[in-house]
Amino acid sequence: MGPEWAGDPGFRKGWGPIVRSPYLWNPGKKIWVSYENPWSIQARSLFAKRHRLAGMMMWELGADDPQHGLLTTMTGPWLRS
């Protein structure tokens, strides 16, 4: 998962430990792209559950894989209560 640039050799993959999100950085072009993956979605879902928030939302499902991996990861903590 990740943006189409993930395979571009000019981009380096990284992880923002404070915001718990993956990102891509191209130092030559000075392009920074953040995106979601199962680990970042799980961190957000667990945060929402721990803080007793009413739920979560997903902006669009089109970026998810055919098996709905991100949606499944997001709903996991809520369904296992």
How would you portray this structure in words?
The protein has about 80 residues and is α+β, with helices and mostly antiparallel strands. It has one domain. The protein is about 30% helix and about 20% strand. The protein has 2 helices and 3 strands; from the N terminus they run βββαα. It has helices spanning about 40-50, 70-80, and strands spanning about 10-15, 20-25, 30-35. The protein has a 3-stranded antiparallel beta sheet with strand order 1-2-3. The longest helix has 13 residues, at about 40-50. The radius of gyration is 14 Å and the shape is elongated. The two termini are about 25 Å apart. The relative contact order is 0.17. The mean pLDDT is about 85.
Q: Report the major sheet.
A: 3 strands, antiparallel
Number of distinct helices: 2
What structural category do the secondary elements indicate?
alpha+beta
Tell me the Rg in angstroms.
14 Å
Catalogue the unreliable spans.
none
Integer average pLDDT: 87
Order of helices and strands: EEEHH
Shape: elongated
Classify the beta-strand content into a percent band.
15-25%
What is the helical fraction, as a range of percent? 25-40%
Q: Care to count the β-strands?
A: 3
Distance between the termini: 27 Å
Number of domain units:
1
Instruction: Output the strand order for the largest sheet.
Output: 1-2-3
